[in-house]
Write a structure and sequence with these properties.
It is built from 6 helices and 8 strands; from the N terminus they run αββαααβββαβαββ. It is globular and about 35 Å long. It has a single domain, classed as Aminopeptidase (3-Layer(aba) Sandwich), CATH 3.40.630. Strand 3 and strand 4 form a beta hairpin. With 186 residues, it is of the alpha+beta class. An 8-stranded mixed beta sheet has the order 1-2-3-4-5-6-8-7, sandwiched between helices.
Length: 186
């Protein structure tokens, strides 16, 4: 992907698809999100426990509006990249990861977010999504991911700290601000 133009990189990200395995060997498909994934995202939030939804949105949330669904699924793959994780054997959606490039940040920095279906917590899905987003982000010239995580979200803090990317973090009240350095890492 080196030397590719921004539009070529976006086209590659839009067509992104990879098969990998969960920690227990179960095959997992990771692919670019598509507009026809709206219902799967809505269903995933409805299955989420109140704690999981709160950890993702920092407020109680039980449904996504049509406008939110468009935002989450109709992405440009240049400034907003999103991947879904699907259990290959059952075709069940298990998670989503995304980054959004921050226009006001120095350098090429993107905000990172994940949501993993409660049934699949602890099986490595967020870790795999992070690895694939890192690959895409590096190809696009990103230098850093930023994430804001609730301090009681131990599982996401663990995923980020185990990423093998250089990390800085700062706790501010019940929030932990994390920076994962992409440039020159890996």
């Amino acid at each position: 992907m080196a030397g590719s133009s921004t539009s070529e990189l976006a086209a590659l990200a839009r067509a992104y698809e990879a098969t990998t395995c969960l920690q227990d060997g179960e095959p997992l498909l990771i692919r670019a999100i598509r507009p026809d994934d709206k219902q799967a995202l809505r269903d995933g939030l409805k299955r989420a426990s109140p704690a999981s939804a709160y950890h993702r949105f920092f407020q109680p949330k039980h449904d996504l509006s049509d406008k939110e669904l468009v935002y989450f699924t109709d992405v440009d793959f240049e400034h907003h990249v999103a991947l879904v994780a699907i259990i290959a054997t059952t075709r069940k959606y298990a998670g989503v990861g995304r980054y959004v490039v921050l226009a006001d940040a120095p350098g090429k920095v993107a905000e990172l977010a994940f949501a993993v279906d409660d049934e699949y917590h602890g099986r490595g899905i967020a870790t795999l999504l992070l690895q694939h987003l890192t690959e895409i982000g590096r190809a696009a010239g990103l230098t850093e991911f930023q994430a804001t995580v609730l301090a009681d979200n131990a599982s996401m803090l663990s995923v980020l700290s185990r990423s093998e990317l250089p990390m800085r973090q700062q706790t501010q009240g019940d929030l932990v601000e994390i920076q994962l350095i992409l440039a020159g890492a890996g």
